[in-house]
Amino acid sequence: MAKSEWSFKSAVEQSAALRAKKVSAVELTQGAIARIERHDGKINAICVRDFDRALAAAREADVALARGERKPLLGLPVTVKESFNIAGLPTTWGFLPQRDFKPAEDALPVARIKQAGGVILGKTNVPVGLGDWQSYNDIYGTTNNPYDLGRTPGGSSGGSSAALAAGYCALATGSDIGGSLRVPAFHCGIFAHKPTLNLCPARGETPPPFPAIPREGDLAVIGPMARTAADLTLLLDVMAGPDPLDAGVAYRLDLPAARHHSLRDFRVLVIDSDPLLPTDGDVRGAIDRLATDLSKAGTRIARESGQLPDFAETSRLYMRMLLSFLGAFFLPDELADAQAGASQLSPEDRSLAAERLRGITASHRAWVLDAGSRAGLRAQWCALFKSFDAVICPIMPTPAFPHDHLPDQSLRRISIDGRDYPYSDQLAWPGIATLPGLPSTAVPLGLSKDGLPVGVQIVGPWLEDRTPLKLAELIEREFGGFVPPKMFDD
User: Fold this and answer.
1) Could you confirm whether 9 is annotated as catalytic?
2) Which of 156, 157, 161, 440 is catalytic?
3) Is residue 180 among the annotated active site residues?
4) Where are the alpha helices (DSSP H) in 76-214?
5) How is residue 148 annotated by DSSP?
6) Nearest to 293 by CA among 483, 471, 442
7) Where is the Amidase domain positioned along the sequence (predicted)?
8) Domains of the chain
């Protein structure tokens, strides 16, 4: 098989071929490098190339394979989101003043990938401060969607999703606080998994120049991205587990098995609408088709439940808690503007924009009260998952939208079936799983009538990550998964 023919093979397939000596790690890496050099001038997914060290790692992997070593990622090309530290390479988060910052040590997840034998090709592009569903900055430029170069690949892990969709690698890393794993997966037609909160330690996925120290995330997670559901599990198992400098002193990871292994055994709640943010016809249609297909396969499908938390109130709470976290890093001028805006809010204004302003300016007392409400929300989800195994719902309201780099995001708009909504209100759908810290797997469901990827997220029970991952794998097996973009399927 020619090197280029491995471009869209899964990591599981590539690993099997390496063990069977059908291909070498050097050949896989050379093929990936050649493909990046051929196509990335148009896509701009790989913002930092590390090809010399990748080829050296591939040669070491081939030696290890020859002597019979077996590691989960041995010889497999991988890309890493720019926000993860890699020793000797810049970590900027898109901040121009940090363009020359180079950490001395790998982030913990990067070290684990290397220890598992992964061959790191380089780093993938992000928006400034990881704060957008588009991936552009003044250091590395704009990343384009492989299905339509005039549209976003998603963000903030947009470089990773575009690299996977373009066939540069089979595995990539990402992170997520406002959908930054799931949104780019949705927009580029790939798979991603937002793990249960704090399942994967993020030491070293740190904005420069702050030190890489153990920390627990509040809403934020890191996780795997891939073109198949099984590959997500492969990379998750490498990344997951407590930080040995922190919780790992006492705790060990023992994730429960998936609840079921057949579609006919799953109990699934399917949701396609939100009182504050609707979905367009393409997204609703994809969800309806999936619900019908699952029902025909024997899955027990419900379209409503009194146990489901109030999505409107969930979204309002999420907006406050998310912006309370993000607002801590606002510049003084930005904070002053938010404070001025919040002071003018009417108590009756319960729009999502108003809740974001309230979050930026919230007192610690207000945050503690909101944290109590979040604990109550987690209890609601726990009760719901006694009746259901998973909840399937949208990730975003529309397929990938055209690039929109208007500096003030509050002035941007998203069109849903011809009606405009505030751009940042799109947080509502990713927030369904983010706020309670639940695992959520992004699954592609083919292409829209305009040739753009559509998909869903499968939200699962707390720390039962293998359940949504298994359901994603079964859906992929029965109903199809990743569809390569036509312009880059050579």
Assistant:
1) no
2) 156
3) yes
4) 108-115, 158-165, 182-188
5) B
6) 471
7) 27-467
8) 11-262+450-488 (3.90.1300.10), 311-372 (no CATH)
- Which range has the worst mean pLDDT, 63-72, 392-401, 405-414, 480-489? 480-489
CA distance 178 to 427: 6
Q: What is the pLDDT of residue 328?
A: 87
pTM: predicted TM-score of the whole model, two decimal places:
0.97
Going by C-alpha positions, the residue among 377, 382, 363, 273 that lies closest to residue 320 is 363
C-alpha–C-alpha distance, residues 441 and 295, integer Å: 20
**DSSP reduced 3-state for 136:** strand
| Predicted confidence (pLDDT) per residue in 171-213, tens digit | 999 999 999 999 999 999 999 999 999 999 999 999 999 999 9
- In contact, 59 and 30? CB cutoff 8 Å: no
| Per-residue tokens: 435 | 């706020």
Choosing from 3, 9, 10, 81, the catalytic residue is: 81
Indicate the residue type of 139.
I
According to the 3-state scheme, what is the secondary structure of 259-318? CCCCHHHCEEEECCCCCCCCCCHHHHHHHHHHHHHHHHCCCEEECCCCCCCCHHHHHHHH
Closest CA to 392 of 335, 455, 454: 455
Is there a contact between 286 and 455 (Cβ–Cβ < 8 Å)? yes
Based on DSSP, count helices (H) and strands (E) in the chain, helices before strands. Answer: 14, 15
What is the biggest distance separating any 2 CA atoms in the chain, rounded to whole angstroms? 70
Write out the H or E segment, with its range, that includes residue 381: helix 364-384
Report the amino acid identity of residue 291.
A
- Mean per-residue pLDDT for 139-158? 98
pLDDT in tens, 401-424: 999 999 999 999 999 999 999 999
Q: What is the pLDDT of residue 489?
A: 58
Known catalytic residue at 135: no
Please answer whether residues 315 and 431 qualify as being in contact, where contact means their C-beta atoms are separated by less than 8 angstroms: yes
Question: How far, in whole angstroms, is CA 235 from its chain's centroid?
Answer: 13
What is the tens place of the pLDDT at every residue in 317-368? 999 999 999 988 888 888 998 889 999 999 999 999 999 999 999 999 999 9
In whole angstroms, give the CA distance from residue 46 to residue 40: 7
Q: In sequence order, which ranges of 44-170 are alpha helices (DSSP H)?
A: 51-66, 108-115, 158-165
- Please, where are the H alpha helices in 83-208? 108-115, 158-165, 182-188
